[in-house]
Amino acid sequence: MRSSKTIPIEVDVLLKKYTQLVRSALPTQIHGIYVYGSVALQAYEPSKSDIDFLTLLRSRPTKNDIITITNIHKKLTSMNSLAKRMDGMYIPTEDLGKPNDEIPPYVHLASGKARQGFWDNNAVTWWTVKQYGISIHGPEASHLNIPVCWSDVVETMKYNLHTYWRKKSQSHWLYLIDDVMADAVCTLCRILYTLECQNIFPKKQSVHFALDIVSANWHPLLLEAIDIRKGKKLAFHLPSRWQRAKATQSFIHYMIDLCTQKHF
Question: Care to name a GO molecular-function term for this sequence (predicted)?
Answer without folding.
Answer: transferase activity
